[in-house]
Amino acid sequence: MASCSPMTRRHARQSLTEPVRIQLPTRPETVGILREISCSGALVVSETAFAPDERVTLLLSVGPEGSSHPERQLRGRVVRCERRAEDVQWRYAAALELDGVLAEVELAQLLPAPGSAGIRCDEPFLAKIEAHGNDGRAAMVRDLSETGAMLLTRAQLQVGERVRLTLLPSEASFAGATALLNRVVEARVARVGPCSEGSPWRCAVGVQFERPLRAGPAPATPMQAA
Length: 226
Prior knowledge:
Blueprint: E1 14-23, E2 30-37, E3 41-46, E4 55-61, E5 71-83, E6 92-98, H1 104-109, E7 125-130, E8 137-144, E9 148-153, E10 162-168, E11 184-194, E12 203-209
Antiparallel strand pairs: 1-2, 1-4, 2-3, 3-6, 4-5, 5-6, 7-8, 7-10, 8-9, 9-12, 10-11, 11-12
């Protein structure tokens, strides 16, 4: 199985937007967004600052929704961590050196499907989130990909809970945003963490969509059996 050499860098870093759980040896678990990945490194944004050489473990969901829903672990060390002045929620960007080298097939499993239109938010946008049978509460989508989203909300949610999102992006949110206006998506809560102190929102929530999100016409919904 072919792999990438960290010296020759046969594979450049690939951009993506995936919610991750971040485990630390001596501190509480936190959440963040995996922004870039290569065969030997990664870039993660988080509300938590990391120290150089600090050990971290990233946990992210891969593959389609299903009974054997897998969670991938990426372990490594912090090479550098910088403050991001332009972002209030994800205040720090940490560059990681991964333990070992990912094989090409392993790297491909972490990236959007070939030929798909990658969705990347340029600015946050509102959404309505329905859970516990309620009529919906406001949420702020901070990051969006074809497979999931990271959002801020005041709703109390639990990992594994099913939710329904109505997306309300503006034209400036990302390319093709108007095609997703009022799009309803079914999702599962993958991770929940507290918002930073002083935030008007209660929780930072990562959700994974039941079906890949496409910036085009909504797919037909199959009729449910009575």
